Amino acid sequence: MGSPRPPIDRPVGARWTRSMPSCKPKIPLTNQNFFTLQDGSLEEDVDSALGDDATTSTASISSSILEYRNFQGRTFHSDKYNTDPLTPNDEQQAMSIDITHHYLTLLLDGELTLTPLKEDMKKVLDVGTGTGIWAIDFADEHPNIEVIGTDLSPIQPSWVPPNVKFEIEDATETWSWSDNTFDLVHMRYLIGSITDWGALFKEAFRCCKPDGFVESVEVNPIFLSDDNTIADDSPIKTWNKVCQEGGKAFRRSLCEVPDDVQLLRAARFMDIQVTDFKVPVGGWAKDPKLRRVGQFLRATIENDLEGYTLMTYQHILGWPKDEYELFLVEMRKALRNGKIHGYMRNRFITALQGQGKAKVLVDLCDVLRHALKRLAYFLMSWLDVPNTRARFWVQRSAV
User: What family does the entry list (predicted)?
Assistant: First the structure.
């Protein structure tokens, strides 16, 4: 199986340099007629040509960070961190990360974000950057914006646009950034890695500039079907059980972010916008765009089905190895069965760090409070209200 990605010290574009370490979607979830069947879509092939990239890191990385954990031939991030890994950090999983990026970009009609971008943006943080593919593409599209990607594993390429860099950081700890640093904090596919989402959102709020944004993108890996084409004895049901039971055993959700909107509000974010998608798995949807998106979603699962399930199935749940190997075979067959019309839910949330708006509101309240005081004094003078009652009335008015 996979191994840590080897360094490839070659440029991939004239504009790029070696990294020095240190639109609304057209189809919402509410449309229950989202999918129609594509005739003859029983077996499809997905062609993907995603290349290898190099390993790099930030600052001086201690050797312990590069001492990856090994489990049944797969490597996972260093045990230096408190976060237990669920997916590997090797080349095979990196390929799936890149395929995932591709289908999400297709889903957004070529856009990288749903956040309304401002012309004066200076700095963007990509939390859990993985291979760094989102940070690299964003930096390439916005050469005047500094982009920083953070992760636990230094598996990012060494040749990148000059305005992007990668750093080692544990998102579950207090972030190293100062308050009000970033115009946008982008977080994608952290499900399974985060125990305290409320703490994560509070750190994002702290490090986001007033009137900056945070964007959270997560997938619920549970297979759903609106036409009951997933049989009770299907290996897809086993996949769902692995996700659900694994989350309980791991004491963190592997399926969705519990109370995500409420947690963002508790972190003091404002103008929270939620966009949900039903994303088909496979090429069974009639719509050409969705068919393509579904093919790539299936490709990312097929490419590293073991990487997505190995740790949960065998280490956490402790199910037998022979049973697991049979599951892998049957699951691949099910993924290729065009008669199964399964889909997953993808959620994009954007939220405003509203301290700038809040300050305007506070200032407005101050103006109104002073105006009410002046009006109160005028009325008291006109009505000849006794001083004791007047003081009490003014105090109540100022609350």
Answer: Belongs to the methyltransferase superfamily. LaeA methyltransferase family.
Q: How many domains does the chain divide into? A: 2
SS3 4: coil
State the chain's mean pLDDT as an integer: 81
In a domain, 362, yes or no: no
> Strand runs (DSSP E) across the chain, as ranges?
17-18, 69-71, 74-76, 123-127, 146-151, 159-160, 164-168, 182-188, 208-224, 269-280, 343-353
Kindly report the CA angle at 218 between 69 and 178, in degrees rounded to 5?
Answer: 75
- Give residue for tokens 């109540």: 396
Closest residue by Cα to residue 303 from 76, 129, 9, 103: 103
For residues 289 and 161, membership in a common domain is answered with yes
DSSP assignment string, 240-286: HHHHHHHHHHHTS-SS--TTHHHHHHHTTEEEEEEEEEEEESSS-BS
Integer Cα distance of 105 and 140 in angstroms: 15
In a domain, 12, yes or no: no
Instruction: Give the tens place of pLDDT for each residue, 131-146.
Output: 999 999 999 999 999 9
- Say how many residues make up the chain: 399
Alpha helices in 48-110 (DSSP H): 91-107
The model's pTM is: 0.77
**Residue ranges making up the domain that contains 374:** 367-397
